[in-house]
Amino acid sequence: MASTVPRGYPSAIEVARTQDFEVRVHMTRVGRATIKLCGELDVCSADLFEAVLNHHMASGRRHIRLDMSGVTFVDCAGLGAIVRAHNTIVAARGRLDLIRVGPRTARLLQITELDATMHVEPMTEPTPLATSF
Asked: What is the pLDDT of residues 15-49, one digit of tens each?
């Protein structure tokens, strides 16, 4: 994993990527991180996602926000990786928040009823500007 700033800084950012997928981690405080996923979370990228998550769990992070705004597709391998991440973090008395979840991914979580067991925050639609005449 490439690091853009030295380790130990309170807002360090780390990036890991494959050809079609990127995981960008922003550490905000000790024990917390926001992981932004970009691209297709599928059989080709699920291992990278899990490796990054496991690294942060081993580093003591127990509250992880998973920013899904850049996810364009999730298959069963990607969904399985999210479920394993959730179960691992909950078993360690932590919390996984799925934030900025797009409509397609939100629908997948709803169909599988995972939205009932995970904290899922849908992406908010931008409000149209009011026009005055």
From this structure: 888 888 999 988 767 789 999 999 999 999 999 99
Whether this model's pTM surpasses 0.90: no
CATH code of the domain covering residue 47: 3.30.750.24
Sign of CA dihedral 79, 82, 84, 90: negative
CA dist 123 → 18, 57, 99 (Å): 25, 26, 7
What six digits make up the tokens of 29? 């405080």
In the chain, the N- to C-terminal Cα span, in Å, equals 53
Could you tell me whether strands 13-17 and 2-3 are parallel, antiparallel, or unpaired per DSSP bridges? antiparallel
Domain hosting residue 14, numbered range: 2-122
